[in-house]
Amino acid sequence: MQTLRFLTYLAVIGGCLAADSKKVVQPPGTAQGRPFSAALEIGDTLYVSGMTGSGKDGKISDKFEEEVQQTLDNISATMKAGGWSLADAVAVQVYLTDMDLFSRMNAVYITNFKEPRPTRTTVGIAKLVGTAKIEITVTARRTK
User: Fold this and answer.
1) CATH class of domain segment(s) 21-141
2) Which residues are within 8 A (CB) of 9 and not within 5 positions of it... i.e. 6 or more apart?
3) In sequence order, what are the residues at sequence separation of 6 or more whose Cβ sits closer than 8 angstroms to the Cβ of residue 68?
4) Between 20 and 30 A from 25 (CA), which of 33, 100, 105, 136?
5) Contact 70, 64 (CB under 8 A)
């Protein structure tokens, strides 16, 4: 009887693991061959890689507010490719190379994330790739 219970338990756990397999979410036109996924969907959760404000031309605006908005647009496009939106975000991590830019980042941020806003951590760091002053990563979850 215990063997049957154990086998049933393994079947249930195996089914749950199979249902939660990783699915890559990649926006159209994104360069392939990167050493990371733009986002991974696992069950009802989406993990979006850290993104910067690079436009389609690969350049980052000299205007900080435009850089922040482009960063959020890049995240939004990635999420949309998987059928998600910023409204699904539950946790956001912001990395700034200059914490004096916090209030300017926040002014753009609040126009993109509506109430109830996701939890957020903002960290000051020394440097990001290229000329980026901000990088943002998002975790989203679908509610049923």
Assistant:
1) alpha beta
2) none
3) 53, 104, 105, 108, 109, 134
4) 105
5) no
Residue 137 neighbours by CB under 8 Å, 6+ apart: 48, 49, 50, 51, 92, 93
| pLDDT surpasses 70 at 5 | no
> Does the structure show a pLDDT above 80 at 122?
yes
CA 142 – CA 5 distance, rounded (Å): 32
Are the beta carbons of 84 and 44 closer than 8 angstroms? no
Give CA–CA dist 72/128, Å, rounded: 16
pLDDT at residue 32 greater than cutoff 80: no
Alpha-carbon distance 78 to 15, whole Å? 28
Residue 40: strand pairing partners:
24, 47
Helix, strand, coil share of the chain (percent; to 5): 35, 25, 40
